[in-house]
Amino acid sequence: MAIACALAAAFLLVPPAPASGLQVSPIGLRLASTAQADALWLTNTGSEPVHAQVRVFHWSQVDGKDVLEPSRDLVVSPPMVTIAPGDRQMVRVIRQVPAPPATEASYRVIVDELPIDAGDRAGLKFILRYSLPVFLAPVGDPPVKVALQASWDNAPDGPMLRVSNAGNGHAQIADVVWRGAEGQHTVLLAGLVGYALPGSTMSWHLPQGASPTDGAIKARINGETSESTLVVDPDGR
User: Fold this and answer.
1) Are residues 199 and 232 in the same domain?
2) How far apart are CA 2 and CA 206, in angstroms?
3) Containing domain of residue 216, as a range?
4) How many domains is the chain built from?
5) What is the pLDDT of residues 67-92, one digit of tens each?
6) Which pTM was predicted?
7) Contact between 181 and 218 (Cβ < 8 Å)
8) Half-sphere CA count of 161, side-chain side, radius 13 A
């Protein structure tokens, strides 16, 4: 499957405030097995200086949930930046470990805009966060292969979709839909849903009342334009 850069997630963590000028590109990185570093660019499109902190976390998935742990496998330089209006700053993401032997390794770079001291101007303190996926390719840079199996579970708090990935690389899952045997179409989860990392299982809540009966559950994997059918285990319904 095609390798797609993952979509960055940006969250406002406090009540609404004027839009920040902080932008980050690219929206994800994948380091080849021989690459020692790559670069992120932090750009300030606003009218005030931007102060930001950049950190690295090892990314795993346990019990259907994402787990982030501080890591020194990758380091960033510089980890703290101040960007003038209209300017940009390069942040290098530097490898400290060898390439993994067979399966892609997963990390997240977290870029936090630091609070602005607004003085007497109420409502101007805010924090913007970007969470950017970074993947380290295995030795030899083999093609990314995903092997997905999905099950539908009627959990006590509602239906859930569980997706396991037995491949050697990540699966970015988006636009989950149900397509009936007679051409019916129901959107279950719109847009970017999340990732199934290699060797991991992830779970997502589905709308109440959704049912996989007499049809197929499909999704777009790793940015492909065509849909892939997710294999649904009838015993998991």
Assistant:
1) yes
2) 26
3) 148-236
4) 2
5) 999 999 999 999 999 999 999 999 99
6) 0.84
7) no
8) 31
